[in-house]
Here is the input.
Amino acid sequence: MRRSLCAALAATLICSFPAVAPAAKTAREKKFDAAARRALDFLVREQRPQGFWEASRGQYRIAMTALAGMAMLCEGSTTTTGRYRDSIRKAVNYLTNSADPETGLVGYKNDYRYTYGHGFSMLFLSQVYGDEEDPDRRKELKRVLIKAVEFSMNAQTTRGGWGYVSAKDGRDFDEGSTCITQVQGLRACRNAGIPVPKGVIDRAKKYIDACRIKTGSQAGGIRYSFKSAASARPAISAAAVAVMFNTGEYKGADVKQMLAYCKKYVWPGGASSTSHWHYKHLYYAQVMYRLGDQEWKKYIADIGDQILKKQSADGSWRGNHVGVVYTTAINATILQLDNAYIPVYQR
Here is the structure.
């Protein structure tokens, strides 16, 4: 009886107040949405019947599948609803079927950079897991993600980073970009309710800080690896800020120094290089969005227009050695970031 009364009161209250309509999109935002739709439709056509996407020369199937899947999640589709549900479901099936039930690796050891695919897969599958309603599929995703986290933990190097392959396979080699991919994937898993020991991420944060240049004209920039020469990499630096934000680090002096470097060498500084442009802005877009509307609107007005000018008639973007799926998935993700459908990207 009490539940019925509460329900009636709730219905009365809802009907008593006018619905608040979402703010109308500007012409620029509609243009970005249209470009993203063409890009995602292109990706649908590029998806193989088995559910995967691939880079140039058939490479990086795991990574490309996860990145393309993330772009579709950014549109608001899930495995059961939305325009791209079929493609997302096929991608999930491909990745879960590619997960080694013993080691937890999502991918294949013959891929000489398999940690990228593994990290991006943790990111994608954890976001799917959060919205999955089917009990059996949810159980399977949880099993795969728990084992994937276990693999990443075992693959971490003695310094706290990751390399292109596991610490064992790579003789304890580590570098910044794969470290970033693992940290974001692990944080996404943890946010979705998958157990991730805090110490694993804490050690990774220390590794990133150890790669940070502390003084001089490149202060705040992140080097390629702990052992590399003292020359910062703008792309890795932008990615490092994004994952520090993911871990809840916003106001520390180290993060502020990293942000200052990025404003000088990534955007809007004039010294920004075109090297690894898509990787760089996949992460820096997340940084700008998290900094709030004022920063985001300036950023997306500039970067968004740059992206639109280079879109091909078929909806894709070309001109990167990794391949058309890579550039198209990343550009579509950037254009849709403020849809705020992806928990790990939200403010």
Notes: Confidence is low (pLDDT under 50) at residues 1-22. Residues 223 and 233 are 6 Å apart (CA to CA). Residues 135-155 form the longest helix (21 residues).
